[in-house]
Amino acid sequence: MTVESLSQKIKTRALQLGFSKVGITAAQELTEEGMRLTEWLNREYHGTMDWMERNRDRRIDPKKILPGARSVVSVAMNYFTPHQHRDDPETARISRYAWGDDYHEVLTRRLQQLVAFIGAEIPDANAKLYVDTGPVLEKAVAQRAGIGWMGKHTNLITKEFGSWVFLGEIILDQELEPDSPMADFCGSCRACLDACPTGALTQEYVLDATRCISYLTIEHKGPIPDELAGKFHNWVYGCDICQDVCPWNRFETPSEETAFQPRSVNRNPSLQELSGMDQESFTRMYRKSPMKRTKWSGMMRNVRAVMSSDGSTGERPGRTRAGEKNRNRKAR
Q1: 304-327, pLDDT tens digit by residue?
Q2: How many CB atoms lie within 10 A of CB 277?
Q3: Of all helices (H) and strands (E), which one includes residue 4?
Q4: How far is 330 from 328, CA to CA, in rounded Å?
């Protein structure tokens, strides 16, 4: 079997399994991206995410993960659903990516099937797969594989689905035909930088996680600074502001994956009701949901921070009314 035919077979099978995009890149060291990672860590923009400092050499070189690695298959799955946040000061906001089932489980099952398919085609192939859980610079890999480009808000943007995509990778010790890297189409737009209420985007393509609402409500383990909580605009788990204002997200397409449809408890929940949720209710409501990551104590901290500040009132950036988008946007 030729390299070209095998590559095409893998891509075809990936799309059949429900992935929205698939691309291939050579398993090369990510030298430039590694330098940016080191600078970001040196600025301590990773906050308490100590795991970002570990395995730095593996993050920038797939061969350190899988000896003999020659190719990386990158996949993206669209998770957008056409539901909107309610513009109500008594309603909590939850990031769109966490509305449905845990994407780690959804994508991992599909990638396992893709690895099995590759194994049937090439029995001696060795592979490692990851879905946001291993030492892989997945956005850099996806850009090199032609999936999309790194936006100024540091999320990956695709032409077809905007930034509403989950990513996964398969590192292989087999040679495949690489795709061309995706060019950057952000142009002079700075909508995401201007919209961030906490100033977490310190400059284009640079995120200070310690000021990011998503980091503070999900990854951060300590108290939330009062001066930042007052700018949360009711976000109690994650934040979509920089994505909501992105011009490329006007090309959003509803996902065909039913697992990403929002659970009723995640669509515009009441702040008051969330504040009264106990540990047992949290465990039951967020079983097999990404939201279990913050734990009950983290969710209660987030809800209290929003309710005790003035962040639940006032004008919100991005989509200000249900169904209405910011029209002052132009893709470049």
Answers
A1: 999 987 544 434 444 433 333 333
A2: 18
A3: helix 3-16
A4: 7
- In whole angstroms, give the CA distance from residue 3 to residue 36: 32
The two tokens of residue 289 are: 């949901």
| C-beta separation of 99 from 82 below 8 A | no
pLDDT at 324: 34
What is residue 86's predicted lDDT score, i.e. its pLDDT? 87
User: Cα–Cα distance between 301 and 307 in angstroms, integer?
Assistant: 10
- Could you list the active site residues? 132
> What is the residue whose two structure tokens read 């390299």?
3
pLDDT digits (tens, 9 = 90+) for 244-269: 999 999 988 999 999 999 999 998 99
Q: What is the pTM of this model?
A: 0.91
Under 8 Å between Cβ of 270 and 90 = yes
CB 294 within 8 A of CB 70: no
Domain 3-83+99-172 classification at class level: alpha beta
pLDDT value, residue 19: 98
Residue 187, CB-side half-sphere exposure with 13 Å CA sphere: 9
**Residue 121 CB partners (closer than 8 Å, separation 6+):** 1, 6, 9
Neighbours of 61 (CB within 10 A): 17
Specify the residue for token string 């590694």: 34
What is the rounded CA–CA span in Å between residue 217 and residue 240?
A: 12
Segment-wise mean pLDDT, segments of 10 residues, the chain, 332 residues: 94 98 98 96 95 91 97 98 91 97 97 98 96 94 98 98 98 98 98 98 98 97 92 97 96 94 92 96 95 96 89 43 33 32
Cβ-contact 205, 152 below 8 angstroms: yes
DSSP string covering 60-101: H-GGGTSTT--EEEEEEEE---S------TTB-EE-GGGSSS
Burial classification of residue 206, based on how many CB atoms lie within 10 Å of its CB (0-12 exposed, 13-18 middle, 19 or more buried): middle
CA-CA distance, 126 to 119, in Å (whole number)? Answer: 8
